[in-house]
Known about the structure:
Elements: E1 13-18, E2 22-25, E3 32-35, E4 38-42, E5 46-49, E6 54-55, E7 65-67, E8 74-76, E9 81-82, H1 102-109, H2 120-137, H3 146-158, H4 163-175, H5 179-187, H6 195-206, E10 214-218
Helix pairs in contact: 1-2, 2-3, 4-5, 4-6, 5-6
The chain binds zinc ion.
Amino acid sequence: MTNTWQLESDKAHTDLEFGTSEYKACTHCQSAIEIVPLLSGNTLGGQLWSDGFLVADQMPEQELLGRCRHCNEIVCLTDLQPHPQQEGFADNNDNSYLSLTLTDYEKLLQQLGDIAEYYHAYLRIKFWQRSNDQRRQLDTRIPFTEQEQQNLQALLLLLDSEDASRLLKTEIYRQQGEFERAQRELSDPFDHRVSEVVVRLKQLVREKNRHLAMIFCGEPAGDSISACKAASNYRGTD
Ligand SMILES: [Zn+2]
């Protein structure tokens, strides 16, 4: 679902490396959509937030859904079939896909009945994180709208017992002020690779802090973590 939290995986300190571009056929207009596989990367210099949102130049996000720039329709990037033509695309012809916006995710959540269940948790996480962008940029204390609350309640039901899901559940409980439940989610052991996140969430729960928080900015490994307080200086990735 998301490997955002795998901060210290084997690949976490390797150079950014992409595989050979693959060209897929848009399910709507059959035009080419270029997918560039990420082989390795690292989170050095990146920022990780308590809702799992990671922004790191050296670890570009691997999105599941995107928008075809030729016909402007939304496609499931992982389900696309290979384009019949794999070579000869002119270098100056941009076949990359466009990332979805908060409005896109909002609309998709209104049509969940038409979307495979596999994507539901992903869509709800993306809606949550995109909605939180205003908090990252302006003020982490901006209250949730009713729609955001409902989204989080629905997301809780979709999350399993994997580490990544348990961290998201912890964060949802925490952001809703349910600190005892948040603490319970944190009580069982986690994989050592997410220990930095667990330590920070435990601290926030202990402080009864319910606001979106930065887990780290800059160097994520070992002693050099700086739990950055400069949320107000952050201006997003757009
Ligand atoms: Zn298309």
